[in-house]
Amino acid sequence: xxxxxxxxxxxxxxxxxxxAVLTGAGISAxxxxxxxxxxxxxxxxxFRAEEMATEEGxxxxxxxxxxxxxxxxxxxxxxxxxxxxxxxxxxxxxHPGRLTLITQNVDGLHQRAGSNGVLCLHGDIFEDRWLDTPxxxxxxxxxxxxxxxxxxRCGNLVRPGVVWFGEALPYAxxxxxxxxxxxxxxxxxxGTAGAVYPAAGLAHQARSAGARxxxxxxANSELDGAAHAVLRGAAGALLPQVLSA
Length: 245
Ligand code: OAD
Known about the structure:
The protein is α/β, with parallel strands linked by helices. It contains ten helices and eight strands. α7 links the parallel β2 and β3. α6 runs parallel beside α10. The two termini are 18 Å apart. The mean pLDDT is 96. The site of 2'-O-acetyl adenosine-5-diphosphoribose has 29 residues, from loops.
């Protein structure tokens, strides 16, 4: 890590009236949650995203996809937020209204660390919803047990409340994220490969609107070129230092 860059970014944090933070799977890596695109350890090294994270994949193999999300839910029950999640929640407590937290993560770890009003672009893995538009017979709390659970009247299937590839992001949430990107003086981009749009586009929007953009990541990311500074390191080590002032 370059000490000069770290001091510079700390100064940018201090002077920014409003900060937007865009997080990705890497911020939860130190909690023991696998990322998607890291070689070997990432989920997409083991599974095909088209099979596990699309509506077509779910319709073709509902049990396989449901069981994978159940496995991830179980894994998340056994992990804790790390120093990076806590640093963000602490900053929000110390500086109410100064930080907008935007995440691509569905793991709920920001909320468990105490962050409020998190803009969850890709949904919530713990939420259940119907695959097809629910009919009057579909009551999610009374779905029949199964892999996945289903409506015993019409056969509708329960699916996880995450955004799959090819699906729209929650409209109001994404609008609020775009507004934060346009209005912030500084955007911190933490633990994301920057490969998935429209989320990654928020960093470009922030830069075009005049904000400073800083990437925090131990490896190269696709957003490095859009950044005024890149801090190389783990989020759990970097964020507490960057936000401590
Ligand atoms: P990726 O798995 O694509 O990227 C994770 C990033 O975290 C990589 O750039 C790593 O270098 C970095 N990283 C690893 N360990 C880290 C650490 N300790 N501290 C900081 N960074 C670290 O995850 P995302 O960019 O979040 O979407 O992926 C975006 C979306 O693609 C996800 O929301 C998910 C996925 O498919 C859906 O499922 C719809």
